[in-house]
């Protein structure tokens, strides 16, 4: 291997790199479709989807109407709620007085908020008035951070009203 072979290999590498860079530049100039969106980011859009406007500022989506929790709770299944309990069992116990990461949930339905013996509640739940009615539990399970801002419960919430009703029906039997 002599110096000329090394020079040829280096030249070939530089030539290939130059061809690739020129190809990338040509491709970008031919197919560039975006403008600057915000904070210097480029925005490209392939096609626009026309959405009919209802005129009153509301969405026209055919969303299923929200069924009131009270109506769903009447027909709730504790057996289905027991299946949902498994995800709660990682932080809560059903034995009275047996706190874990979260407070025990035996007798939670109808109990005062922040009243589990021996559990150090967050300030918001410790000072919140009222009882844990099925409706209050549903609101808390829907979005704990919104229902009680500052709560220690790190759960994102349960969107399905039927699942909430079934879980609360199961907890009401405990």
Describe this structure in words.
The protein is mainly α and 174 residues long. Helix 5 (134-142) packs across helix 7. It has helices at residues 3-31, 69-74, 78-88, 123-127, 134-142, 144-147, 161-172; strands at residues 35-36, 42-43. The longest helix has 29 residues, at 3-31. A two-stranded antiparallel ribbon has the order 1-2. A hairpin with a 5-residue loop joins strand 1 (35-36) and strand 2. It has a domain at 69-172: Orthogonal Bundle (Cytochrome Bc1 Complex, Chain D, domain 2). It starts with a helix and ends with a helix. Pfam families: Cytochrom_C. Keywords: Electron transport, Heme, Iron, Metal-binding, Transport.
The biggest beta sheet is recorded as:
2 strands, antiparallel
Helix-strand pattern: HEEHHHHHH
The percentage helix is 40-55%
Strands, count? 2
Supply the CATH class of the domain at 69-172. Mainly Alpha
Runs in which pLDDT lies below 50 for 5 or more consecutive residues are none
Shape: elongated
InterPro entries: Cyt_c-like_dom, Cyt_c-like_dom_sf, Cyt_c_1A/1B
GO molecular function: electron transfer activity; heme binding; metal ion binding
Organism: Jannaschia faecimaris
Domain Cytochrome c: 76-174
Q: What is the compact description of this entry?
A:
By secondary structure, the protein is mostly helical.
Layout of helices and strands:
Elements: H1 3-31, E1 35-36, E2 42-43, H2 69-74, H3 78-88, H4 123-127, H5 134-142, H6 144-147, H7 161-172
Antiparallel strand pairs: 1-2
Helix pairs in contact: 3-7, 5-7
């Amino acid at each position: 291997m002599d110096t000329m072979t090394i020079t040829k290999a280096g030249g070939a590498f530089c030539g290939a790199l130059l061809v690739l860079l020129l190809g990338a530049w040509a491709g970008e100039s031919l197919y560039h479709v975006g403008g600057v969106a915000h904070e210097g980011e480029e925005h490209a859009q392939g096609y626009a989807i026309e959405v009919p406007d209802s005129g009153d500022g509301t969405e026209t989506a055919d969303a299923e109407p929200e069924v009131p929790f009270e109506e769903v709770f009447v027909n709730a299944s504790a057996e289905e709620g027991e299946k949902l309990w498994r995800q709660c069992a990682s932080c809560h116990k059903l034995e009275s007085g047996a706190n874990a990461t979260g407070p025990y949930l035996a007798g939670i339905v109808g109990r005062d908020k922040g009243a589990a013996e021996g559990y150090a509640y967050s300030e918001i739940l410790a000072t919140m008035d009222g009882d844990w009615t099925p409706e209050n539990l549903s609101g808390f399970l829907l979005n704990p951070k919104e229902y009680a801002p500052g709560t220690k419960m790190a759960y994102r919430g349960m969107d399905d009203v039927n699942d909430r009703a079934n879980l609360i029906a199961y907890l009401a039997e405990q």
